[in-house]
Specification:
about 230 residues; alpha/beta; seven-stranded mixed sheet; binds nickel (II) ion; binds manganese (II) ion
Length: about 230
């Protein structure tokens, strides 16, 4: 079974199985890279890695429109309930849950998670998906951490890693992350959305493919790959 992953720029992905649409960090409004707007998006589940506006994004509006179940840490779950979103499933770091479409485990991420209104958003996370025999790791916003090696021990088919620098890992540390995780494939993300995170993903791809066994997929916002 193949999974279709569409990138909308920044950290935002839509993962599609045969039956289910999983939307990760739905940043459309204010995202200069996204070729679509929030009202054009359908989702069955929305996963939110942390409370920052460029990741929480249009979660409330899309959840209201689609009725999608929102998966996040417990603190963001509580904040969403206060906003009137009641189709929510809280998890927390280290915990996995089996959904009808597969399993997701929340992983550590070294970052912040304050919500746009100043509310406490708990700890940020990444996501480790187990879907139809595939293992996908979306690091979301994080610096480099050595425990990426533990995540890699699971045998990762595809890793989605930030390379933008300034707010997250930059190209050098993202290359070190690939060496720790040893994924079969990588997609670089969280770059070129804003001036402070300008990077050349093709130059990074050359370095990664020279120094590791991973295949790098540099994709354009709105494009997809199949895994
Ligand atoms: Ni952030
Ligand atoms: Mn971010």
């Amino acid at each position: 079974m193949t999974l279709k992953l569409t990138w909308y720029g920044h950290a935002c992905f839509l993962i599609e199985t045969n039956q289910t649409k999983l939307l990760i960090d739905p940043f459309f409004s204010g995202n200069p890279l996204s070729p679509v707007t929030a009202d054009q998006i359908e989702a069955d589940y929305i996963l939110v890695s942390h409370g920052h506006g460029d990741h929480l994004g249009d979660t409330v509006a899309i959840a209201q429109k689609t009725g999608a179940t929102v998966i996040s840490n417990f603190e963001i779950h509580n904040w969403l309930i206060d906003k009137g979103i009641d189709n929510v499933h809280p998890q927390h770091i280290g915990g996995g849950f089996d959904y009808p479409w597969g399993r997701v485990k929340l992983t550590i991420a070294h970052h912040g998670s304050g919500l746009p209104d100043g509310s406490y958003g708990g700890n940020p996370c990444g996501f480790l998906f187990y879907i139809e025999g595939k293992k996908l790791y979306h690091a979301c916003d994080t610096g480099l951490f050595y425990d990426m090696k533990l995540i890699g021990e699971e045998g990762i088919d595809l890793a989605i890693l930030p390379i933008g620098d300034n707010f997250t890992m930059g190209p050098d540390d993202a290359l070190r992350a690939v060496k720790l995780i040893e994924p079969a494939q990588v997609i670089p993300v969280h770059y070129n959305t804003f001036d402070v995170i300008r990077q050349d993903p093709n130059a990074w791809a050359v370095r990664v493919e020279k120094e590791t066994a991973a295949k790098v997929n540099v994709i354009q916002p709105g494009d997809f790959i199949k895994v």
